[in-house]
Amino acid sequence: MGKRLLTLTLAISMSLLVGLTGCSKDSSSTASTSGKKVEYSKNIPEKISKKSDKVKVMVIRKIGGDDHTAQYLAGAKNEGESLGFKVDTFTANGDTAKFHDAINQAIEKNYDGVIISHGDDAATVDDVKKLTDKGIPVVTFDSNSDISKIKGVTITSQNDESLAKLSLEELKKVTLGQAKMAYLWVDGFPPMVSRNKVYQQLLKDNPGIKEIDRFGVATADTSVQTQNAVSAMLTKYPKGQLDTIFATWDAFAIGAARAIKEAGRTDVKLVSIDVSNADLQAIQEEGSPWIGTAACDPKLIGAVDLRILAKKIAGEETPETYKFEATLITQEQLKSSGKPVNMDNLSEIVQGWGKSDAFQEPWMTELKGIFKK
Fold first, then answer.
1. Coiled-coil intervals in this record (predicted)?
2. Which one, out of 66, 105, 290, 365, has a CA that is 20 to 30 A from the CA of 234?
3. Measured at the alpha carbon of residue 343, what is the angle toward residues 339 and 347, in degrees to the nearest 5?
4. Would you state the pLDDT for residue 36?
5. Which residues pair with 323 in a beta bridge?
């Protein structure tokens, strides 16, 4: 009896040992924050699979207060969490001091990676250098071009030249090359500088299009200030003296559209850059002056930026720069759908919208399967 029991115990022990040994050949594990073990295959990069806790990422954006910002941050957060990462987000709403303070906190808290959006000043370059010196990977979006001098950083941006060209071509088409225009633009941001170059070239090439006034601020209440400014313009320039507005940012366009509708100026048309749920709703409203906008999907931008950062954290090669291609969205397209169009179903109207497998590695797909909610 005792001998049979000893033999059985040894057999069970050997079976467990073989099972555990076989498991260790095909996978590694890491503890999740819930205290449970998550089993990873050997396909997952070691720098991620060997961590004792979740990968921690910080996304910091200087501008804010608009739906575009909310969509961008949501895109990055959702993509990161789908990989099992912990993603913190922060928007400074245009406050420079708060923006740089957030970056310094990210340095002190030892995040595994940081994404910086709209860091336009020289101090951002210094901040990025501090991060990389500490070994923290960085991806930037629409930020100071001097960051390109820092080794290992990926600079992403919308194709701002294409955005401006698409929007302005729609303006030319609608006005037949004859327009008295108000220009809504603010200097100091890299994307705005690029868009302005295209705009200035348009004025040179099309003498029938004339700028008669301009306005622009980048604050937490940009739309409100723009609405007030455009209302004043519409009073200053009666019918026949102002017929078109070009908004280089949708925060400008939202305020301008409200002002035009409130003034009852059906003669004034609005074209813009960027898009959000609020924008799509305004464009589809009955009698809306907003006839079109050129845009890249902000949610997709956030997601792709996160993928690039994930590759950096994993120790994989990434490009120095990456540009997101632009798409024109017209009022005519939206109204032809026969139903309300928002950011979720826009892809049904605009082919390819919101979809990209850029930097989507097989190991990321595997992680998404593991952490699928």
1. none
2. 66
3. 75
4. 58
5. 157
Entry pTM: 0.79
Dihedral sign from CA coordinates of 5, 11, 17, 20: negative
Sequence-distant (6+) residues with CB within 8 A of 265 are 234, 239, 289
- Residue 88 neighbours by CB distance under 10 Å: 17
Lookup result for tokens 């994307």: 191
Length in residues, the chain: 373
Within the chain, what is the greatest distance between any pair of CA atoms? 107
Question: Measuring CA to CA, which residue among 346, 288, 75 is closest to residue 272?
Answer: 288
Alpha carbons 16 and 326: distance in angstroms, whole number: 57
CB atoms within 10 A of CB 218: 22
Instruction: Tell me the C-alpha distance between 252 and 26, whole Å.
Output: 55
Q: What's the token pair of residue 221?
A: 């209440």
Relative to beta strand 290-295, strand 244-247 is: unpaired
DSSP character at residue 95? -
Q: Which residues pair with 117 in a beta bridge?
A: 61, 141
Helix residue spans in 285-361 (DSSP H): 298-313, 331-335
Question: What pLDDT is attached to residue 67?
Answer: 82
pLDDT in tens, 76-105: 999 999 999 999 999 999 999 999 999 999
Residue 176 phi/psi, 5° resolution? Answer: 55, 30
Cα separations (Å) of 105 from 60, 90, 184? 11, 11, 34
Give backbone dihedrals phi and psi of 371, rounded to 5 degrees, phi first. Answer: -100, 15
Residues 6 or more apart whose Cβ sits within 8 Å of residue 25? none
Burial tier of 248 (Cβ tally within 10 Å: 0-12, 13-18, 19+): buried
Which residue from 59, 54, 85, 63 is spatially nearest to 74, judged by alpha carbons?
59
How far apart CA 185 and CA 160 sit, in angstroms, is: 13
- Centre a 10 Å sphere on the Cβ of residue 26 and count the other Cβ atoms it contains: 10
Q: How would you class 3 by CB atoms within 10 Å of its CB: exposed for 0-12, middle for 13-18, buried for 19 or more?
A: exposed
